[in-house]
Amino acid sequence: MDNVTDRPLAGILLRLLSGILFTGMMVCVKAVSTEVPLGQTVFFRSAFALLPIVIFMAWRREFPRALATRRPLGHLVRSGLGAAAMFASFAAVARLPVAEATLLAQLSPVAMAVGGVVLLGERFTRHRAVAFALVLAGVVALVAPDLGDNQDQGRVLGYGLGVLAALLTAGALVTVRRISRTETAASIAFYFVLVTALAGLATLPLGWVAVSGETLALLVLAGLFGGAAHICMTLALRYAEVSRLAPFEYVALIWPVLADLMIFGLAPSHGFLVALPLVLGGAGLAALEGRRFRRPLRQ
């Protein structure tokens, strides 16, 4: 990614659009989760995400030039962590409302900040400590009401998978920090989606199912939405500083809540309403603090 170009309105609109597209992807994944195996869903989501990414790269006249790499092992580590995160995230959304699974994904900026301290030697500042405390309190608020409920262990497992997905995502992003010194954002996105598609395809012997036309359409849409959401977020961060975009993380959570209400008939839980400001506040603080340590990425 190039250095930020000061077009804040464009950045904000693209961030809002990325939230809508990401929610669309999660809705599609949840809608097929009861009939399509997890690996099959991951394959379709990743394979069809290649289409908008390659079209975007071709439009910018970067394909295939931008795919040249000097860090193949770094791409493999980043993509492996990202693929594992996708498996865990999709398994979580199969067991949780879309809004709760999306909220748990917001843990990754804080986990990434801690990872930067442990793996990259960055300072553990007061802001990072406060961010960690906020998200920890938010997770407790979200999960605590269900810990004593033996009737719904699947939901508790979903929380664990959601946290695991956020931690794996943070690991992938820390790896991105390292390889982005020599690698383009386009190559990082392309190889991630490619490796994830291959990981999903590797589950074929475990048993895939024949799907209806409607289910196939949802699987394809999950990929198209996911690829387009990545492009919009990349452009949003190019056009506006993280500090300008941080307040719109709250807006991005409106779409999953509306999707749960209107499509799946699920109202937000009390734990979710308490956890929402805590988790997003901590994630926003970590993202703003992390901006001080971020090197400009090449595009």
Automatic annotation (TrEMBL):
The keyword Transport does not apply. Residues 10-142 form the EamA domain. Pfam families: EamA (PF00892). SUPFAM superfamilies: Multidrug resistance efflux transporter EmrE (SSF103481). It is found in: Membrane. Keywords: Membrane, Transmembrane, Transmembrane helix. This is EamA domain-containing membrane protein RarD. The chain crosses the membrane at residues 12-32, 38-59, 80-97, 103-121, 128-144, 156-176, 188-210, 216-236, 248-266, 272-288. InterPro entries: EamA_dom, EmrE-like. It is a multi-pass membrane protein.
